[in-house]
Design a protein that fits this description.
heterodimer; A: 747 residues; alpha/beta; 6-stranded mixed beta sheet; 5-stranded mixed beta sheet; 28 helices; 19 strands; globular; B: 251 residues; TIM Barrel
Amino acid sequence: MNDNRIAWRSFNKGVWCDDINVSNFIKMNYTAYNGDSSFLEGPTERTKKEMERVHELLIAENEKGGVLNVDTSKVITILSHPAGYVVDKDTDIIVGLQTDEPLKRGVSPFAGIRSSVKACNAYGYEMSDKIKDEFTYRTTHNTGVFRAYTETMKKARHAGILTGLPDAYARGRIIGDYRRIALYGMDFLIEKKKYDKDKLGEKEFLDDETIHLLEDLAKQIEFMYQLKELALLYGYDISKPAANAFEAIQWLYFGYLGAVKEQNGAANSIGRIAEFMDIYIERDIKEDTLTEQKAQELIDDLVIKLRLVRHLRTPEYNDLFAGDPVWVTLALAGVTNEGKHMVSKTSYRVLNTLYNLGSSAEPNITVLWSERLPENFKKFCAKVSIDTDSIQYENDDLMRRMYGDDYAIACCVSAMKMGKQMQFFGARCNLAKILLMTLNGGKDEIAGDQIAPEGVVFGDEVLDFDKVYTEYKNYLKWLAKLYVNTMNIIHYMHDKYAYERLMMSLHDTDVERLMAFGVSGFSVAVDSLSAIKYAKVYPVRDERGLITDFEIKGNFPKYGNDDDRVDLIGKDLIEYFYRELCKTPAYRGAKHTLSILTITSNVMYGRKTGSTPDGRKAGEPFAPGANPMHGRDAEGALASLNSVAKLDYACCRDGISNTFSITPDALGKSEDDRIEHLVAMLDGYFLQDAHHLNVNVLNREKLVAAMNDPTLYPSLTIRVSGYAVNFNKLTRDKQEEVIARTFHHAM
Amino acid sequence: MREPSTTRCDMADIHSFESFAALDGEGIRYAVFFTGCPLRCAYCHNPDTWFRSGNEMTAEEVFNKIRRFKPYFRNGGGVTFSGGEPLLNSVFINEMFDLLKNEDIGYCIDTSGSVELTDGVKRAVDNADMIILDIKFYDAGKYKLYTGGDIEKPLALGRYCTEKGKRLVLRTVIAPGINDTNEDVEKYAGYVSENGLKFEKYELLAFHTMGFFKYDNLKIRNPLAGTPALEAEKLDELQKHLNETLKVKEG
């Protein structure tokens, strides 16, 4: 690797020089920064000019109902479109768009041709006959899945027990290690994959899995060559390693761009890139070829490009994941296994884009929080939260124990080792609805159909906790098995018909697979069990004889008040369900993981669920993620956090999402107080091994005003369940649900 | 509705808890609101604390709740006893102190000062990190008229804190039409300095109407039902005037 002598000049050498090991490269070369934010620079004139164009585009997109333009003439792939620019070739620094024009969406029917047709129609477009013809004799992921689904799976899906499954859209949640392109260049990565393939083919007996992997590798290699061509379209040769900061960022971005052209998965996260980019920036600054202003400009321009990534979605999809998210999740900071913090100046520069370019939902900036982060950085993060409501926090001290020190976050809360782990995304099941089904002997309380096997019939007498909980667990056991097998079918078909060739080429060949299950309706299920245990709950039947309502006499402890009587029910429930999931093997030897995360689908799941024993009425939204139910946390913000903190991350390794909203007045009197209190709050929460926190510091009145007149706050960004959205992109019912959420306010 | 009197002295009747009270004291505060108050302030925004809740708890029970919040009490955070009148529960607070001390958690008391300076009260004050004392009025007549109490009691408590070198924060609620003029502010400044109170800060708080619904719920008369909330700008203006007046007096 002779070319590396120039590209790798003045880097500290280590094992990363001989084999792919970005983590080792970072740790040997990054510069930890303990100072404050005073070095940061504002936007350049060039950046301002480009942002003007971006604002025009965003306004036009909004005026057209959320989709500016769709290219229905052809299928989007890595090489489908000629080069495109935001302003023009000379003004854009970091280059590359998904199609030939900014915000023009491509059609990617690999996950399902029907949903692509629907998505086109929803925005007034017609898919071209060319695409339809191309897919006439082609099986998509969606078709494959429905061929294999059993009747029970279809029923469970239809009733809304298993919901939001990636069986009609692409699964996403896979993070390519795009840094590899910058550090090693494509030629080395291609050679490495070819070597792996040859080596694999030498095995004594080529079993199913080996042949599968051989084909995977061939696909990967093909797309690695295509990525090189994509870069050439823009005039860059990424065969060789990047030799300066601009190239490092551009090479890395080409990898990401190729991935979001090839795939339209539910979340396309970019990984842990800030500290990596910092090494190149620091070297250029030392060599006097880059100024702070130009360094910030590079980061600003990368972030502009990330903000413009779009996929074409169906209305049903938007119902699950509102606000048109891509989840360009960008994780930063954290601590090394050796205990050294990884905050660099570029961690600051990335956060600074929220000031230079204005607040925004994308990229989904995720601070990997540790007690050991420097105080200056903690305070700056708190300030950014208070000013922009655009960042989320996840507990590095907790995740590092399981994922080491080079993991990133996909989507909202899903941790995975960069380039070493991938995930089979599995949406979620509805814990509240299964409880109702338990009480109705396996019948859907809304449609009345028998979904699950017939079980014990509950009479009209007061519900007995032990009996209910025992039966509930029996149904959860049944559900767990069904859920794993359903996921096995989905991911078998996704691998077969919509394999992520480019993203997977930027992973190790012997990648570790995680299968991510999820639950919704957690707090409703827990409070319902608490009501049955501590109050008197009488079933109320409808004319069909089904239990569709409840009469509740007396008080009961509610999740969200740091009360063990109820919190431990939730803890036990989740641990039980996770153990049951693990009993059914997962496709391709994947490890089972579980999340308590709903994204914005808590509204839709609530709509599909009858009245529950906690007093929630039929159709009312659930609380999002692991949040306590709206308005039930009576002892204030920290009691609510403490309840969530009790849930064991070891059995929820795919994340425990908590969204927290507080008014500025309640957080503190002065800006300094507010910053200090938010830092103390984050430290206190995460010290208890809590996993995740979205922070919103805003007034309820502001949201009500924005709901009634969207023009008042055009870029109002808020954090919902694990990601940020532009408030104005939410539908009315989701806006109302956000407003109904507990706001912790000053007395 | 009965007024407090029958609580066992090692127990307290608790109105509520607020786990994130960032405004009363330093850092993040865990606030314990007791029921029971010797005063009946016309502008009270917590009239629901005048009456027993029936939620009687021992110091140990309350302590077990508080200790769970220790991870948040960095940078000077801790417990704030409020109410109602917390110093009516000095036995409870003193018992609590022994428990908190072992966990290295400090407390503040947010008080009207309208209590007898008994040995128990003195001990509760001695062990506190800080006392937040309401200076409700600057003359005995108005004090009696608007609170029903005796102005000498809070003054005695303020002097005791000064004598002991206790960290003291003074507070006054400003209500439109009652004490919202520059002259009022000057009189407050004069009152505290002439009486020799040594304090760290003197904060004015705005009268607000967010507690009005409580009067309706309790079906008791709200003596300031027609009074509007004090505007934030007015409060800032008065606070500024107070700070300047105090500076002149100190100088």
